Amino acid sequence: MADVAIETVTLTIDGVPVTALKGTLVIEAARQMGVMIPHFCYHPKLKPDANCRMCVVEIEKVPKLQTSCSTPVAEGMVVRTATTVVNEAHKSILEFILANHPLDCPVCDQGGRCDLQDFSHESTPTTSRFVEVKRIFQKEYFSPLIETEMNRCVQCLRCVRYCDEVMDVKALAPSGRGTMTEIKHFSIHELDCEFCGGCVQICPVGAITSRLSMYEFRPWMLKRADTICTYCGDGCQITIQTKENELIEVNSSHGAGRNNGDLCPRGFFGYHVSTHPDRLQHPLIRRNGALVQTTWEEALEFIAETCLSLKLAHGPTAFAGLIASRCTNEDLYVFQKFMRLVIGTNQLDSSARYGHINGVRALLRVQGTHRWTIAFEDIVSAHALLLVGTNITETNPITGLKVKEAVKKRGAVLVTVEALQPAIGTISNITNLAAHHVTAHPERFGDAVLGLIKGVVEEGLVDPSLTQRAPEYVKAISEAVRCLPWSAIEQATGSTSSALRAAARAFADAPRAVILVGQGVLRAPGGSGVTTTLLDLLLLTGHHGRPGCGLAPLAEENNDQGAVEMGTVAEFLPGPGDLTDQAVRERIAGLWKEELPQTPGRTLMEILDDARAGTVKVLFVVGENPVGTLPHAARAKEALERLELLVCQELFLTETAALADVVLPACSYAEKSGTFTNTEGHVQSVRQAIEPVGESRPDWEILSALSVLLGYPIEYREPREILKEIRSLISGYGLLGPAPIPPRPDAAVVEGYLKKGFAEDVTSRYSLSSSTDRQAGNLTLVVAQSLFHSGKLSTRAKGLLELQKAGALALNPADATLLGIAEGDQVRLSNARGQMTTSVQVRDRVPEGQAVFPEHFDQEVRRLLSVSPDPQTGAPYFKTTQVKVEKV
Amino acid sequence: MLLEKYTDHINEILSRYPVRRSALLPLLNLAQREDGYVSESAMKEIARILRLTPSQVYEVVTFYTMLNLKPIGKFHIQVCRSLMCALVGSDTLVGWLQARLGIRPRETTPDRLFTLSTVECLASCGTGPMMQVNEEYYEQLTEEKVDRILADLKRDGTCSLKSGPFMFPQPELQQVKR
Amino acid sequence: MTFGEWVKTITFYEILVGMKSTLKHLINYKPVTLQYPHEKRTLPDNYRGMLALLRYDDDTEKCVGCDLCAAACPSRVIKVISSEVPGEPTKRFAKEYSMDMTRCLFCGLCVEACPVDALAMTREYEWAVYDKRELLLNKQQLLAIGDRSFQVREKRLELQHPNVAFFNVSFKELPQKPS
Question: Looking at the DSSP assignment, which residues form a beta bridge with residue A835?
């Protein structure tokens, strides 16, 4: 941070003078100069514990050996790490540790990358003076995915501390005392936690290992590929380890990528998707009503012929395309180029439409950027954080870790507006860390935000320079919020006015403040408006435009941001540039050496409507699954059945692919190279880990081959060439540095917004949502993402299925008591659209009056949901509804 | 449930500490006095009261040997096995008790009367070998004394041989001096 | 020339001395060449012949599938695919084990590397074959070699030594690894 003076001290380590920052630990200073002091319990992410005593060093003028992991450097300190005394100490400590270690290295999965093994090889004789029988722990079942072998434990407690300090889950505990200390969950119960795999990664020995890859490998056999996880927008770097084209395990080394080596259950255990036995291996074509295996040539020729004849008959407006934003930037770019040049239509959309577009449109409107103006580092160093509708631990776990780090390690003030309430549970709950929490109804996040703005205005926290710069803006908003009575806000949010004022003050007083907006807002009605209002909050408190401050909409899919920037949404060209912007059109046309189509873009819901109406006759679907995602009320199946040609590029035979005329097998992320753009706008490379499964090919190759057959070749030799072309359109795109360089808000756009832009919808944004009071006995059903599943593929990962196999309705204990329901009971949910039965979980964190169901097991639930597209952005909203819950 | 039964007492305990977690040991003590041991449901409830996870409560319970995780017998015999008592034969004492009761340390007799355990120093070093039965001390034990104590406990629920905890010098010596 | 020298000269004494060995063999003939298929040489005790996998006295395989033999092998003869024993959770074994004996140089490093003494070099050497593919030996073949070469078997290792705490033991009450 720039506001802290950097102090350094100079010390000598092994005779070499070293300069280190004040407060650095001796072990870190030594590491910086290339001396590795052996250690078990020390880890840079954790607070020093100094319990293993392995890292002792000699420090001049200190009579005894000191633990280098807990001694900060001091001016003029003289440290020796390799003297006889130190070596003797290491030897005796290892002898003590090995007195109880079973030495079953041959059958231990850690053998070959074990710290204990390495240090023993370095410094001990092969004999021990201990003749006593080794301790043996009673073997207890731990969990289906994590295996413990406590006999191997060196009791460094890294796992326990990681679980507490970094993950905030606190699921592991050292039970017993002395040499009989063992790592357990709660008593003999099976482990029930976030399953982030952190304990597996951080264990220096083989005491905690992954059961999923157990005994399949030895570390030296593994081939590594650093790539990017596809399960959410955080863009974590993962290292896929393979053995002879088989996926063995995934991990992430400390300090690597934007996640700094931390992972979530999806990243750590969800990698088996690519080699699932149900993967499509060959192209399929519909013959006599059934999909049968065919060859690539036949499939592509059939598509080309049909397309050419339909184009001749109906023109390019009869074509449309949908792509999943889980594809690489290269795939997305080639897809939109294919649709625009080869087909000649702008009717294409991607899954960024489900919510991310709301955030992007708000950012573009107010500050002229399509990306965050902050990076993860700014979240960590923020003084105040406002989380609105994020449920961040479950949707974006690694961004959640940054928030946890800011709060737990740096003392940031956390304000949360969530459809959750603070409660200790088996998975961490971000509202537990909040200094100010508003339990908002999932459809009324906007009201809570208005309450905060009212608090800012009434407490006199409005930035005086803004009042000078844009008096009308401040006046209009002040008046708008003054018209809102506190009583109505209190009723809508369930918080008192004093609590909201206190939260507003805490947020406004912080020098650096960051707002994170999650799916709760972006995927709910008025998502774009609430995001704009949150930007108003930043503007009013004077944080907007200050370094390290900003608003960050969290992307749900790994490449939502890339989909927007590659121009695979209805309203944008690559860049993203507006589809109607003549200057952008000319520049792109110049680079492509071809005129761009004139037709307007159509959003996902509009394309489905057109298909139902019969105007769209051909649909290209790449990895997208509208039938399996949208509720039955959207009538997506009906729309797709009316098409004359439906082409799907898919990994699995999804609900949508089952309706297709031709299904082309595509590669998963593990089998192709390219780039992903994460939620903060950092472009990171995806590297191929295994050979393509069966005959599958990367999506861009398929589209490229089709373009040749359609008489307009777009050909590339490799994904790098596509990236080069993208860079010619968007200069400097994806320079692949260690961290993104966030853009600055466009001053002209902000000025325009403050002068005029705000006025167009200020009245509609600054009014409380119409109160849709639920009827007695009805609950608000929220279909939400769960920690263990995300995206369209996770339900095929065996590890994740082991953690969550089926959906269950989560209820507040009070509601459950009222309805006479206990954990595990069967209930019937019903509303005007239909009914379903499911089982119940009682969870403290679910607020009263709500019922939460995981969206990945919503096949039945989707019958109960209605769907309504946003009037401005066309984003379909279908995540909440009212249901009656009865015990069966 | 503890909270319903001892609401005021628990609130009083909580009010003593600036950090909620600090009230863990007094609450565990309360739970143990209630049931004779710390049950799983009690641990879960204490975790809820203190906003901890059950694992965090469990780790504390397993650390302190005074807290029992299993139901114990009516008489909890705790034999000191620290150095002083060991020198004057606490091992033999444990042997006698094992033979009489037919159980090993950390076990309970089938009739749920006696639980035998070995513990560290009970601060009665001058009068070893000694044992503590529930809250009472029995010191300078011999085989005959052990037989008598066990028989008395079985019959009456108490035994006249109980003493202290006294610091050295012993009470009778003090009386003689006076 | 003395008389003695003269006698030696006329009797070709020097030649007779030179021919002594020859003449001795002429009379007392003993062939050096072994008539191989009919006669066999006595092998030294540390003879390194064909490799074999061994079993314990209760017929269970010794091999724990640790792959150290494959790691030690200088000519990449050995290939091990290890996994959990079906029906015996947390116990490791070699699901597949093969040796390409065409490449083996009988250095014995694999035997030395084996932590459970599951590999041994037998005294078999008559492994000439017409088809090289016959020298690709799988686990069953290697076990069969071990069975016929080593009649006396070791007792099972599990908990045999007090300091080898739970070495590759199965826990029947645990569920099998997810598949």
Answer: A830
Eight-class DSSP state of B96: H
CATH 2.40.40.20 spans which residues of chain A?
778-887
The Cα of B65 is separated from the nearest Cα of chain A by a number of Å equal to: 9
pLDDT in tens, A374-399: 999 999 999 999 999 999 999 999 99
Find chains touching chain C: ≥3 CB pairs under 8 Å.
Answer: A
Give backbone dihedrals phi and psi of A259, rounded to 5 degrees, phi first. Answer: -90, -5
Architecture per CATH, domain A778-887, reads as Beta Barrel (2.40)
- DSSP character string of chain C: --HHHHHHHHTTHHHHHHHHHHHHHHHS----S--TTTS-PPPPTT---SEEE-BBTTS-B------HHHHH-TT--EEEEEEEETTEEEEEEEEEEEEETTT-----HHHHH-TT--EEE-S------SSGGGGEE-HHHHHHHHHHH--S-BPP-TTTSTTSTT-S---TTSPPPP-
What is the pLDDT at residue A478? Answer: 93
Contact between A141 and C164 using a beta-carbon 8 Å cutoff: no
Distances (CA, A) of A244 to B166, C74, C109: 73, 20, 25
Mean pLDDT of A697-725: 94
The answer to whether residue C39 sits within a structural domain is: no
Q: Do chains A and C touch (3 or more CB pairs under 8 A)?
A: yes
CA distance A805 to C20: 94
For residues A882 and A831, the answer to whether their CB atoms sit within 8 Å is: yes
What is the residue type of A619?
A: L
Range of the domain at C3: 1-30
| CA angle centred on A356, ends A352 and A359, rounded to 5° | 145
CATH 3.40.228.10 fits A376-553, yes or no: yes
Closest-CA residue to A880 (of A784, A788, A768):
A784
Secondary structure of A85-113 in HEC code, one letter for each residue? HHHHHHHHHHHHHHCCCCCCHHHCCCCCC
Same domain, C59 and C138: yes
Distance of alpha carbon A65 from alpha carbon A68, whole angstroms? 9
CATH architecture of A106-117+130-275: 2-Layer Sandwich (3.30)
Predicted local distance difference test score (pLDDT) of residue A772: 61
Looking at chain C, which residue has its C-alpha nearest residue A211? C177
DSSP symbol at B36: S
CATH architecture observed for domain B75-166: 3-Layer(aba) Sandwich (3.40)
pLDDT one-digit tens code per residue, C107-161: 999 999 998 889 999 999 999 999 999 999 999 999 999 999 999 998 876 656 5
Instruction: Kindly determine whether residue C175 and residue A144, on different chains, have CB atoms separated by under 8 Å.
Output: yes
CB A647 within 8 A of CB A710: no
Q: How is residue B14 written in tokens? A: 């909580």
The per-residue pLDDT of chain C, averaged, comes to 89
Q: How far apart are CA B85 and CA B140, in angstroms?
A: 10
Do residues A187 and B39 make contact, with C-beta atoms less than 8 angstroms apart? Answer: no
Question: Does residue A2 belong to the interface with chain C, where contact is any CB pair within 8 Å?
Answer: no
Helix-helix angle A471-482:A445-458, to 10 degrees = 110
Among the four given CATH numbers 3.40.120.10, 3.30.70.890, 1.10.1650.10, 1.10.10.1590, the one describing domain B2-63: 1.10.10.1590
Identify residue C113 by its one-letter amino acid code: A
For the domain spanning A8-82, the CATH number is: 3.10.20.740
Ranges for all domains in chain B classified under CATH 3.40.30.10: 75-166
Q: Could B47 and A424 be called an inter-chain contact, meaning their C-beta atoms sit closer than 8 Å? A: yes
Nearest by CB to A144, from C162, C168, C178: name it.
Answer: C178
> What is the tally of structural domains in chain C?
2
Q: Do residues C100 and C137 share a domain?
A: yes
Interface A:B, ≥3 CB–CB pairs < 8 Å: yes
Residue among A135, A149, A214 minimizing CB distance to C177: A214
Residue C41 inside a domain? The answer is no
